[in-house]
Amino acid sequence: MATFIKIASVTVGAGGAANINFTSIPSTYTDLIIMCSLRSERTTGGTDNIRLEINGSAANRTFRSIGGSGAAAYSETDTTNFIGYLPQDDGTTGWTSNTFTNTSIYIPNYAGSNNKSLSVDTTTENNATTSYADLVASLWSQTNAITSLTLKTGSGSDLTQHSSATLYGIKNS
Amino acid sequence: MTTAIEVNCETGEVIERPLTTEELAQREVDAAAYAVAEAEREATEAAAQAAKESAQAKLAALGLTAEEIAALSK
């Protein structure tokens, strides 16, 4: 039976933060999962998004996703480290104040010697029609063991205060 | 001051540090690239929505009911 063990947990304090970086991740688990609740301080445009860097790099990544926006169903394919959409503090979409994402990022065999896959289940929260729910299949085409994971925004804006992330290690998956 | 939060998963130590000059410069690059990509994505979505509404209007002009138009996309 799989066992979830909390490795570390972070909540962003007053003033926000550019990123949350889990470093020196031990290789003693089978899989990793990040459960996070995030929001961006961006104030221009409509919607920010979540990016995940692996071992300090955004390179060698591809993803495919399916999702819904409240108005339409869609699918996306790209070569970025996109994880999902992200409510932001102001802008054209009008995200409800103090709403965050609900996001889980599952990374099996993170310490192995094959390319690494990521399975993401994420949704924004908004008291309006527009809100995004996505399932994302992402690939890191590198064989190194994963030792660090960095959550940040796609726009370069800060993560808002009270954004949080918890990293779990999974044994016997 | 923009900071980064680093959590050492072996020791549990949490460090909040200022971004380096290189990291600040990269944020500027990211922001500009993101704004361009977002504008392109929104334009694509708007064009698709406009095409959908135009097609529906033409079908209605041909005499199809709203139920018949909806049935075409199922």
| Number of helical elements of chain B | 2
Counted beta strands of chain A: 12
Query: Secondary-structure element sequence of chain B?
Result: EEHH
Number of strands of chain B: 2
Helical stretch count of chain A? 0
- List the uncertain runs of chain B: none
* Cα gyration radius of chain B (Å): 25 Å
Structural class of chain A: mainly beta
Characterize the biggest β-sheet of chain B.
Answer: 2 strands, antiparallel
Strand percentage of chain B lies at 5-15%
* Percent in helix of chain A: under 10%
Tell me the span between the first and last alpha carbons of chain A.
7 Å
Mean pLDDT of chain B: 92
Strand order of the largest sheet of chain B: 1-2
Tally of distinct domains of chain B? 1
The domain tally of chain A reads 1
The largest sheet of chain A is: 8 strands, antiparallel
Give a quick summary of the entry.
Chain A has one domain. Helix content of chain A is 0%, strand content 48%. Chain A has strands spanning 3-11, 19-23, 31-37, 48-54, 61-68, 73-78, 82-86, 102-108, 116-123, 133-140, 149-153, 164-171.
Describe what you observe in this structure.
The complex is a heterodimer of chains A (173) and B (74). In chain A, strand 5 and strand 6 form a beta hairpin. Chain A has one domain. In chain A, 0% of the residues lie in helices and 48% in strands. In chain A, the strands form 2 sheets. Chain A has an 8-stranded antiparallel beta sheet with strand order 1-12-3-8-9-10-5-6, with no helix packed on it. In chain A, strands 2-11-4-7 form a 4-stranded antiparallel beta sheet, with no helix packed on it. Chain A has 173 residues and is mainly β. Chain A contains no helices and 12 strands. Chain B is an alpha+beta fold. Chain B has one domain. Helix content of chain B is 65%, strand content 15%. Chain B contains 2 helices and 2 strands. In chain B, strands 1-2 form a two-stranded antiparallel ribbon. Chain B is elongated and about 70 Å long. At the A-B interface, strand 1 and strand 2 of A face strand 1 and helix 1 of B.
